[in-house]
């Protein structure tokens, strides 16, 4: 469901993207080409900052926002999800936040007040709060990263995780095409 926020902003969604009918996309949100937004996802840009403004939530092309994901922002801050990025089931991306291109964010992970560098993999049940991650970074499952965390204790992304991320993007591209085709038949 697409809807306005209280400030009157309405989402802009590319016609080549698929938004599941159970998902809610509200307010100053831009969804670019070939994006999949799964069942029960919530993408909400509706809080204003101290100046009464709302910065956008932008989901760039060829990305996927899977079932039950929540993307929101505190005080109207911006959120950007890069190209070919996968946000897995029930993850929370809370702005201010930037997730780079070709990133995989695992199940039940929380990202808040952070930048995740391109080609990174953040595995399931992790929390990234208030510390930026460099490019090609691998966060093991159930890792909590915040200010003061020594990032040098974690190794780069193993090649098998990069190929897994690519396969998830590819599978979700097929879902966009399949669901769009079903919608045209009804």
Automatic annotation (TrEMBL):
InterPro entries: Gamma-CA, Hexapep, Trimer_LpxA-like_sf
One protein family per Pfam: Hexapep
Name of the protein: Carbonic anhydrase
Organism in which the protein naturally occurs: Neptuniibacter caesariensis
């Amino acid at each position: 469901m697409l809807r306005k926020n209280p400030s009157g902003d309405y989402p802009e969604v590319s016609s080549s993207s698929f938004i599941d009918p159970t998902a809610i996309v509200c307010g100053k949100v831009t969804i670019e080409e070939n994006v999949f937004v799964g069942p029960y996802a919530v993408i909400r840009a509706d809080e204003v900052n101290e100046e009464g403004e709302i910065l956008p939530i932008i989901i760039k092309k060829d990305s996927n926002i899977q079932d039950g994901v929540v993307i929101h922002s505190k005080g109207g801050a911006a959120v950007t999800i890069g190209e070919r990025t996968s946000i897995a089931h029930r993850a929370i991306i809370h702005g201010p936040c930037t997730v780079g291109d070709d990133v995989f964010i695992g199940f039940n992970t929380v990202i808040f007040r952070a930048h995740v560098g391109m080609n990174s993999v953040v595995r399931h049940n992790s929390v990234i709060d208030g510390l930026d991650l460099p490019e090609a970074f691998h966060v093991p499952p159930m890792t909590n990263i915040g200010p003061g965390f020594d990032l040098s204790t974690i190794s780069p992304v193993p090649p098998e995780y990069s190929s897994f991320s690519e396969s998830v993007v590819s599978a979700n591209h097929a879902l966009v095409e399949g669901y769009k085709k079903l919608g045209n038949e009804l």
